[in-house]
Design brief:
The complex is a heterodimer of chains A (278) and B (250). Chain A is mainly α. Helices cover 77% and strands 0% of the residues of chain A. In chain A, α1 packs across α11, α4 (99-113) crosses α6 and α7 runs antiparallel to α8 (177-205). In chain A, 38% of the residues are buried. With 250 residues, chain B is α/β, with parallel strands linked by helices. Chain B is 36% helix and 26% strand. Chain B has helices at residues 43-50, 78-84, 100-109, 116-129, 133-136, 149-162, 179-192, 205-211, 229-234, 239-245, and strands at 5-14, 17-27, 32-36, 60-68, 71-72, 85-88, 167-171, 197-201, 214-219, 222-228. In chain B, β4 and β5 form a beta hairpin. In chain B, α3 packs across α4 and α6 (149-162) packs parallel to α7. Chain B starts with a strand and ends in a 5-residue tail after the last helix. The chains are: A mainly alpha (278), B alpha/beta (250).
C-alpha cells in the first residue's frame, strides 16, 4: 500500500512541475508569437536600409535606429564589460573578505535594483547638462552603468566556481599571480563570463528610460558620438504612442528586429567562443 | 641535477594555530624522501613550506630557514623559487581550458617562452619523462580533461618537469588513483630521482617502503624520526614510530 502511495505522489509532483513549466512558457511564447505576428509583415529590406519618413508618406525604415542601438550597445559594452570583469577579479582574487569588498558587493546589489530611469536622470545631470547637449556618448555611459553590476556579479560567481587547486597549480609553476589570473583562471571561467556579459547586453539593449534623457533619439543619422542618436527602443516608444496606424506597424517591426538583434548577438558570442575553445 | 635541502627550526602557523614545531631535517639530493604520518600531522604543511605555497594562504606564516643548496629560500623571491622547486598535488589538476600540449608547456609559455620549436621539444621531453608521450602524442591538441585520472596526474608531473626544477614535491600524488595508475606513478618516481630531489608525502606506508630512500615520520607537527627507509620500517628508534608503522594508531 505504501509503495503505491510513493509512486502516486511521484507522478503527482511530476505533473505539477510539468504544468508549472508550461504555464511559465505561455507568456514567453505568447510575447514572441504576438510580436512576430504583428511585426513580420513590415520587416523588409527597406526597413533596414531607409530612414524614417514623415507621417503621411508611405515606406520608410529604421536604419538609423538599428545602427544607433548597435552603437549604443558597443559603447556600453566597451566601457561596462571590462570594468565589470576587472572589478569582479578584484573581488574574487584579491579581496574576498574585507569591509571594502563587502561594501562594493552591497552597492553592486543595490545598483542592480535601481530603476534605470534614475540612472538616466543622473547621467543627464552629470553629463548632458554639463555638455549642454544630448549625445550618443552619454547614452552609452548610462547603459554601461546599468551593465556594470550585472557583469560584476555574474563574473564573480563564475570565478568562484574555478577550483582553488587550479590557481595553486599556476603558482606552483612559478607563474606570477596576475598571469595565473589572466591566462589560467579567466579562460577557465570564460564560458560563464561570456554568458553573463551577453545577459548584461540583452538587459540594456531594450532599455528605453535612460536613453530618453541621454541619447534622446534622432530622425536622421548621427554623424558623431556627440550628437543625439536614434535607438530602437526610443523609436518603438515614439511610434507606438503615436496615433497613426502606419507608425504602429513600424513599432511592431522595430520590436521584432530588436528581439532578433539580441538573439543574434547572444548566438554569435557563444558560437565564437565555442569554436575558439575547441 | 637535484639540489639538497636543509631545514632549520621551521615553524608554521595557520592564523594562531601552530602546525609545525621546530622541524630540523636534511634532505639529500637525488634521493626520494618520503614523509609519513597520520592525518593532520603537518606533513602537507611541511612540503608546502618548501616551495612557499604555504605563504599564499591568507593568515598563514612560517619562520625558520630552509636552505636550498645553501641558500635560504625565505630570503629570495617565492615566484622564482617555484621554478626551481616544482610541485604535484593530491588531485590531478590540469588547466581545464588548455590542451594537453598547452598544459605541459604552461610554465614555460606563461613565463615568457615564445619559441615554438623549443616549446615542442620541452613538451616531448617532459611527456616522455612522465611516461605519457606514447599515449598522447597523437592528440596533443585535445583537452587535458579528456584524459583518465592517472593520465591527468602524469600530465601534471610532466607540467611540473617542463620548467626543469631541481626539486620535485609530491603531495600524496597517487591517493586519488587506482592501483595500476599508482604503480605507474611509483615507477616514475624511482626513475626521476636520478635527475631530481624528490620529497613525497604519502598515507600509504607500503608505498614509502617501496620507493623511498629515506623516510621521515611526522606526528602532531613534530618530526619524530628520520632515517634510511629500511631502518625506519625494520628498526625504528622511537616507540611512536613503531606504533604507527605497526598500525597501532593513525
Amino acid at each position: 500500500m505504501k509503495k503505491h502511495r510513493r509512486k502516486y505522489v511521484n507522478a503527482l509532483m511530476l505533473a505539477l512541475f510539468s504544468i508549472a513549466t508550461l504555464i511559465a512558457l505561455v507568456p514567453l511564447f505568447g510575447v514572441l508569437g504576438y510580436v512576430f505576428k504583428n511585426g513580420v509583415m513590415d520587416v523588409n529590406l527597406k526597413f533596414f536600409l531607409d530612414l524614417p519618413v514623415p507621417m503621411g508618406m508611405t515606406g520608410g525604415g529604421m536604419a538609423n535606429a538599428i545602427v544607433g542601438t548597435l552603437i549604443l550597445i558597443a559603447i556600453a559594452s566597451v566601457l561596462g564589460i571590462p570594468i565589470g570583469i576587472l572589478a569582479a577579479i578584484y573581488l574574487t582574487e584579491y579581496d574576498r573578505l574585507s569591509w571594502f569588498s563587502t561594501l562594493i558587493r552591497f552597492t553592486t546589489d543595490v545598483l542592480t535594483g535601481i530603476p534605470s530611469i534614475i540612472i538616466g536622470i543622473v547621467v543627464y545631470t552629470a553629463i548632458v547638462v554639463k555638455m549642454k547637449h544630448f549625445s550618443a556618448f552619454s547614452g552609452g555611459i548610462a547603459l554601461a552603468i546599468i551593465m556594470i553590476p550585472v557583469v560584476i556579479r555574474s563574473t564573480e560567481e563564475m570565478l568562484k566556481l574555478v577550483p582553488h587547486t587550479i590557481r595553486e597549480a599556476g603558482y606552483a609553476l612559478g607563474i606570477p599571480r596576475w598571469r595565473t589570473i589572466i591566462q589560467i583562471v579567466l579562460p577557465t571561467a570564460a564560458k560563464g563570463i561570456v554568458t553573463g556579459s551577453m545577459l548584461a547586453v540583452a538587459r540594456v539593449a531594450g532599455e528605453t528610460a535612460p536613453l530618453l534623457f541621454t541619447a534622446l533619439g534622432n530622425q536622421y543619422w548621427a554623424h558623431n558620438l556627440n550628437q543625439p542618436i536614434a535607438a530602437l527602443p526610443l523609436s518603438i516608444y515614439e511610434y507606438a504612442t503615436s496615433p497613426y496606424k502606419q507608425w504602429h506597424e513600424q513599432a511592431w517591426a522595430g520590436s521584432l528586429v530588436l528581439i532578433f538583434l539580441v538573439i543574434i548577438l547572444n548566438a554569435t558570442a557563444r558560437l565564437a567562443f565555442r569554436t575558439r575553445n575547441n | 641535477m637535484g639540489q639538497s635541502l636543509s631545514v632549520r627550526n621551521l615553524e608554521a602557523w595557520y592564523g594562531s594555530n601552530k602546525t609545525l614545531h621546530g622541524i630540523n631535517m636534511e634532505i639529500a639530493k637525488n634521493e626520494v624522501t618520503a614523509i609519513i604520518g597520520p592525518s593532520g600531522c603537518g606533513k602537507s604543511t611541511f612540503i608546502r613550506c618548501i616551495n612557499r605555497m604555504h605563504d599564499t594562504l591568507p593568515g598563514a606564516k612560517a619562520t625558520g630557514e630552509i636552505l636550498l643548496d645553501g641558500a635560504n629560500i625565505y630570503a629570495n623571491d617565492p615566484v622564482e623559487l617555484r621554478r626551481t622547486v616544482g610541485m604535484v598535488f593530491q588531485k590531478p589538476n590540469p588547466f581545464p581550458a588548455m590542451s594537453i600540449f598547452d598544459n605541459v608547456v604552461a610554465g614555460l609559455k606563461l613565463n615568457g617562452m615564445r619559441n615554438k620549436k623549443k616549446l615542442k621539444e620541452a613538451a616531448e621531453k617532459s611527456l616522455n619523462m612522465a611516461a605519457l608521450w606514447d599515449e598522447v602524442k597523437d592528440r596533443l591538441g585535445h583537452s587535458g580533461m579528456s584524459l583518465s585520472g592517472g593520465q591527468q596526474q602524469r600530465l601534471c608531473i610532466a607540467r611540473a618537469l617542463a620548467v626543469e626544477p631541481s626539486v620535485l614535491l609530491m603531495d600524496e600524488p597517487a591517493s586519488a588513483l587506482d592501483p595500476i595508475a599508482t604503480l605507474r606513478i611509483e615507477e616514475l618516481v624511482t626513475q626521476l630521482k636520478s635527475s631530481y630531489t624528490i620529497v613525497i608525502v604519502t598515507h600509504n606506508m607500503q608505498q614509502a617502503a617501496r620507493i623511498a630512500d629515506s623516510t621521515a615520520f611526522f606526528l602532531n607537527g613534530e618530526l619524530v624520526e628520520h632515517g634510511a627507509t629500511s631502518d625506519i620500517f625494520m628498526t625504528p628508534r622511537d616507540k611512536r614510530t613503531e606504533d604507527y608503522i605497526t598500525g597501532r594508531f593513525g
